[in-house]
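Open question from group meeting: does this chain pack into something compact, or does most of it stay loose? Before anyone orders reagents, we agreed to write out a predicted structure and look at it together. Recording both the input and the output here so the notebook holds the full record.
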Amino acid sequence: MELQNRRVLVFGTGKSGIAAAELLLKREAVPVLYDGNGDLDKDTIRSRIHHEKAAATEVILGELPEEEIGRLDLVVMSPGVPCDLPVMDRIRARRIPVWGEIELAYRCGKGKVYAITGTNGKTTSTSLLGEILSDWYPEVYVVGNIGNPYTEVVSEQTDQAVTAAEISSFQLETIDTFHPCASAITNITPDHLNRHHTMEEYIRVKRRITENQTMEDLCVLNYEDEILRGMPPANTRVLWFSSRRPLDEGLYYQDGVIYLAKDGTAEPVIRTDELQLVGLHNFENVMTAVGIALHAGVPVDSIRKTLRAFRGVEHRIEYVTETRGVRYYNDSKGTNPDAAIKGIQAMNRPTLLIGGGYDKESSYEEWIRCFDGKVKFFALIGQTREKIRDAAVACGFPEERIALFDSLQEAVKACAERAVEGDAVLLSPACASWGQFDNYEQRGDLFKEYVRALEE
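C-alpha cells returned:
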C-alpha cells in the first residue's frame, strides 16, 4: 500500500504508537492518533511527536466516531491494544486493513531481518544476537519488544541494514507480510492468557513468526520444548538446539560445552565456563542466537569472541550489589511463572524472594514447587499477592514465612531486615508489572534504587 496522503488511524498513544505516527508523517501519510482513554491530554500526546507537523496531527480520545472510521484507509495497532475490542469489530466490518507497528516498520524498512519470539529468553537471545551481528556487520539495529520500536529506525536503514528483532505474541497478532530471513522460538509455556484466552490461540500466534518464511530461510527451535517438537513448521528449514541431549544435527549442550553438529561431526562452539552468562536457560539463549548468527553468515570465531564478552541484559537475574554479606538480584523481567522458575534455579544461596504483581491468569504451583528448599522468606506484593499466598500454602510452603506488602519498597525493607550474611534477596515476580508500575523496567529500576539506599 502506498502511504502518501493515506489517512491512517494509529491505535494507541504509547511509545510504539508515537513512533508509528512519526514514521507515517515522514512517509507523507495523514496519521490520526487514537486512544480509548478519554482522560488523556491531546496536547501532551502531540508534544511527544518529533516532526514539524506534530502540532497539526489529529488526536481522538474516548469513543471513535463511526464517521471517522469511514474515512480511514488503514489502521496501525500498537502491541498493547487488544485486537478483540468492540471498536475493532466495527473497523473490520468495513474491511479496513489492520497492521501492527511491526508490519508497518517491515514494509518501510530495508535490509535483512532476523526475529526471535518465545515465552522466555527472547530478550537475552535478541540482545546477544544483536551484539554478535554488530561485531561483524557495519549497520545493525536491535528493535521490537526489547524496548526500541522498529518504526523508530527504518528511516535510517540502507539496503545493507541487518535487524535483530524481539517479537512478542502481541506483535505477531497483527503481522501480514512480515518475513524474517531467520526466526527462532525459544520456548512456549502458558503466558498472556488474559489476552489470548486459550493456550491454543497463544501457540497459534507464536507460530506466526514462520508464516511467510520459505525453504531458503531458517527457524531455530528448542528440541526440549514438547510443543515445538510436536509441531515444527513445514514451510521452512529447522535448526534444533538442545540443553539436555546430543543431536545428530543442530546445536547442543553437553558436559560444559556447546557443540554444533553437522554432516556427521560435532564441533565445539564454546565452553560454558568461558561465558559470563550462567544457568542452563542462558545456554539455551546462547544456542538460539548462535543458530541465527550462523545463518546470517557470521563466522564461528567472531561469534565466539562476542559470546565471551557478553554480560547479559538488565533486569534478568541482574546482580545489583552485596551489602552486609547479602547479595541482591533484580529479575524484574521474570514476568511469568516459567521465567521466575529460571530465576530461583539460578540462586545458590538461601533466598528471600519478592514476587507478585498484575494478574495474567497464570498458575503459580509449578513455580512454588521449584523453590526446592531455597526460599526462606516469601514477600508478596501487587494484585496477585493473596492468590500466590494461597497457592504457596496449598503446596506446603509454611504460611508463617509468607508476608504481604502494599509496596515494593516495604518488601525490600522487610527482606533486608530478615536477611543474614550468606543470603540472597531476589526480585522475581512471576507477574507483569502493570497496576503498580509502568513496565518491568521501572519496577526493576526502583528495586535497585531501594536496595542501594540500604547501603546509605
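Observations to bring back to the group:
Residues 177 and 335 are 29 Å apart (CA to CA).
Residues 280-295 form the longest helix (16 residues).
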